[in-house]
Write a structure and sequence with these properties.
It is a single chain. It is globular and about 45 Å long. With 212 residues, it is an alpha+beta fold. It contains 6 helices and 8 strands, in the order βααββαββαβαββα. Strands 1, 2, 3, 4, 5, 6, 7 and 8 form an 8-stranded mixed sheet that branches.
């Protein structure tokens, strides 16, 4: 895009998405100075950016307000499994939680913040939709459902859709959540709360090579 070359639209069979946002950010920002809000977001997002840079195929999508959106699998459709993409997204989410727990808040009006996280996996279409302000974007129901998983998440919890959970249930422990109304709100998506990664012993007992 930077060179002026056209970017062909592409259909992706399966991508793993994550959306995170700050709990009660509107209330916090209304009580904070502009300098405090910008400092907080820069501090948080720069550390989250460092995390995604450590993964082979996780990329940040457009950040809208305090919503932070990432995707796994854009460049490894043929070389890594969709299970690997979900594992990477979940491990990334766990590291985001660690960042938030230890975030420097000494210049803020509160001593801590919390985030909500939603994760989903499925097909999407990628392309450049606005040539006046070109940027690569991803579209489809999978993107929408990821946002709905985040909106129904709890503070400092990782809310995982049924399809994503099914791919990695041999690698991570989950606790069942209420199903989530999605899309037209007449459909319901099974959902789970992420607990932790299984021990190596239990992972091997389940077959042990899900990430390959």
């Amino acid at each position: 895009m930077k060179s002026g070359a056209s970017v062909e639209p592409k259909h992706f069979k399966s991508l793993a998405f994550l959306t995170a946002d700050i709990v009660s950010f509107t209330n916090l920002s209304s009580k904070s100075s502009a300098k405090q809000v910008v400092a907080l977001l820069n501090r948080l997002y720069s550390q989250m950016d460092d995390v995604i840079d450590s993964f082979e195929d996780i990329y940040k999508l457009e950040t809208i307000g305090d919503a932070y959106n990432i995707v796994s699998g854009l460049n490894t459709q043929e070389t890594l499994s969709e299970t690997s993409h979900v594992i990477s997204i979940i491990e990334c989410a766990q590291r985001f939680m660690d960042i938030v727990r230890s975030l420097d808040m000494t210049d803020q009006i509160t001593d801590h913040i919390q985030i909500r996280v939603g994760i989903h996996v499925g097909p999407a279409v990628g392309g450049v939709a606005n040539m006046a302000m070109p940027k690569y974007s991803l579209f489809g129901d999978t993107v929408t459902i990821t946002g709905q998983m985040e909106q129904t998440s709890r503070p400092m919890e990782i809310h995982v859709s049924g399809p994503a959970c099914d791919l990695v249930k041999d690698v991570f422990e989950f606790e069942v959540s209420e199903s989530v109304p999605v899309l037209d709100m007449k459909q319901r998506m099974p959902a789970w709360w992420l607990l932790h990664k299984k021990s190596r012993a239990s992972f091997v007992a389940f077959g042990g090579n899900a990430a390959q």
